[in-house]
Amino acid sequence: MSQVAREPRILIVGLGLIGSSLAAGLRRAGVAGEIRACDPHLDELTRAREMGLVDGGGACLAEQLDGVNLVVLAVPVLAMCDVMHELATDRHRAAPDLVITDVGSTKATIREAAVAAFGSLPANLVLGHPIAGSEKSGLDAVDPALFEGHKVILTPAPSTSTDAVGRVRALWATVGAEVLEMDVDRHDAVLARTSHLPHLLAFSLVDTLARQDERLDIFRYAAGGFRDFTRIAGSDPVMWRDIFAANQSAVLDALDEFEAGLARLRHAVEAGDADAMLSTLDRASHARRYFDSLLNQRSYQAEYQMQESTSLCYRAGPGGAVQGRIRVPGDKSVSHRSIMLGALAEGVTEVSGFLEGEDSLATLQAFREMGVAIEGPHQGRVTIHGVGLHGLQVPAGPLYVGNAGTAMRLFAGLLAGQAFDTELTGDTSLTRRPMGRVADPLREMGAVIDTAEGGRPPLKIRGGQALKGIDYDMPMASAQVKSCLLLAGLYADSETRVREPAPTRDHTERMLGGLGYRVERHGDTCWLQGGGALQAAPIDVPADISSAAFFLVAAAITPGADLVLEHVGVNPTRIGVINILQRMGADLRLENEHEVGGEPVADLHVRYAPLHGIDIPADQVPLAIDEFPALFVAAANAEGVTRLRDAGELRVKESDRLQAMADGFARLGVEHTLYDEGIDIMGRNTDGPNYRGADVDSLGDHRIAMAFAVAALRAEGAVNVRDCANVATSFPGFIELARRVGLTIEEQQEGA
Ligand code: S3P
């Protein structure tokens, strides 16, 4: 249940668009208390009363303060100073539990005004900013739904009363807004870029064109682009003058960054540099769509460290069928590498089957930020204008790789060899994952890398180091570590050799070979010589066996199932899931086997057959490392015990996958015993359901979310899975495909 404002008497100071819309929204929500207003324009006050928005009011603040519990200051930013002084003088007239809040677009100057007026920052003052508005202003534009679904940022200080914050939260929740918190400086820096700079540019562009209009008659011919770009130049000039003045230094910083970017683009146009133009335009066009998807799902939090109050959940109904022919999206490991190697190659690399998931898109975006022109993705097709091993440019800021451990670890290797400094950051899950495993051997090669405490991200990589080849014995079976070192090895003065304790996926070696770079292997060791070059070549990304795994298991546990998964990559270093399911008794065949671009692919045909528990062979663990959440669901539906050991790596994936699955199993009633590096699962395969329905938490881990969605096929009741937005990192369209083969599953937004 969301909170509702329970203030006996609210006073809104300033009946502009925001003040009047707040009054209208509160009225519409049916708040019980009295709403008063204070505004110097008495005719506006009369109108507001006639419209039923307020119960009364007047022009003198002191007179309106009597018995007021909550004051909302909705006056222009520069008028705040005077209003704060009046408030400070007459606050004794208000109720003893008075809370004050404001709606100003800048926060530092308003905080200063408050300190000047009150002597110190009052504990009952909660500064706030609704991110809503319109180019229209005043009571004429009043809109009771103005704040619905919009964000309101509160910027409480450590000394602010939590009760006061709670009451201001309730105020905004009542009119349908989503309330977030951040500190004042961050608010001003973020808003300078997302709101103040665009307004400044729109005003300036329209003004410049207006001056030329007489001569060129521009406005007569102005069409869509002009209209879209300049709508906000119709906004209230006084309000915006105040905002630019009040947030001067952050606005100037944002303007400096913008001018530098504009100068670069100007230069590209002037020089007729088609690649540089394309690089900027493509980067911008994709950044726009990428951020859109981030903003609409989860990563607003990741980007701006705000608090998210809703998350995406799955409701997977019990039972269902698994029938048909589908193709799951492209392989994540190969997609990451296609961008990395294509960017470092000489010439144009055409990629098909690229995974348009958040993880691989983050890699793509990072290369755009390093000046690589990349077209697409358009239906899995990406064209990369390679810049060669030494052609990357310094990015403007930290490279954000979202949820992707692969991106961060492989980037660490290739960025260690660049001439410029870089910083790698990621989302909350990635920030918890160990990076010492790459930073340590890279340091042995001569790289200079700082990590946060415990070898965690962010990684700060100092450029301009001369790297030397090493002979490295990996302490864990990790393709990411191996690949990281091979990529750094491209920049080393001699040979880089990596020995793996068990075979791990070898896409990096194969793909380097495909782009003409010699990588050798003997037994458990592979090596390459630095100083060569990569030549562009087409890359065909097969369907991801790690995504296919959820459907393999779905079919393997569902009586009557008959499913074909087309064009799946069956590289021998990835087929642990096939080997394990077959050993458990699955009827799983490879059909239409062939090779594309150096990678074996096949159609996987799976029909229901009863499964039994097995001891998972240790040599299969690295070959199925990402598929265990799905395999555990197979084990829960297999007769007898399935034992897994030597799988401690599962604890440092996107979540602690051993714990996350064990917790979910406990809720479903699947018997199991958890060990440090493994698990025993006591499965059942009855004629009916094999466990009950329950609410489980994916902990934001895409593979845990999909595994429990599949588990619902043999549950007694619905399985509700929390925190599923990250499925978009590896498997966009999962829900649609799942429904297509016969699962009953839907997505829901859930309040946190
Ligand atoms: C990957 C390697 C594996 C795997 C990850 C992708 C890769 O990690 O879990 O999802 O693309 O190299 P480790 O090599 O660290 O086990």
Automatic annotation (TrEMBL):
Domain Prephenate/arogenate dehydrogenase: 8-299
Residues engaged in binding 3-phosphoshikimate: 332-333, 337, 478, 480, 626, 653
Active-site positions on this chain: 626
Binding-site list for phosphoenolpyruvate: 332, 405, 433, 480, 657, 703
Any one GO CC term of the record: cytoplasm
Pfam family, one: PDH_C
Main location: cytoplasm
Enzyme class: transferase
Keywords: Amino-acid biosynthesis, Aromatic amino acid biosynthesis, Cytoplasm, NAD, Oxidoreductase, Transferase, Tyrosine biosynthesis
Catalytic activity: prephenate + NAD(+) = 3-(4-hydroxyphenyl)pyruvate + CO2 + NADH; 3-phosphoshikimate + phosphoenolpyruvate = 5-O-(1-carboxyvinyl)-3-phosphoshikimate + phosphate
Pathway(s) this gene product operates in, as recorded in its UniProt entry: Amino-acid biosynthesis; L-tyrosine biosynthesis; (4-hydroxyphenyl)pyruvate from prephenate (NAD(+) route): step 1/1; Metabolic intermediate biosynthesis; chorismate biosynthesis; chorismate from D-erythrose 4-phosphate and phosphoenolpyruvate: step 6/7
GO BP, sorted A to Z: chorismate biosynthetic process; tyrosine biosynthetic process
Subcellular location: Cytoplasm
HAMAP family listed in its UniProt record: EPSP_synth
SUBUNIT field: Monomer.
NCBIfam families in the record: aroA (TIGR01356), PRK14806.1 (NF011381)
Function text: Catalyzes the transfer of the enolpyruvyl moiety of phosphoenolpyruvate (PEP) to the 5-hydroxyl of shikimate-3-phosphate (S3P) to produce enolpyruvyl shikimate-3-phosphate and inorganic phosphate.
Protein name in UniProt: 3-phosphoshikimate 1-carboxyvinyltransferase
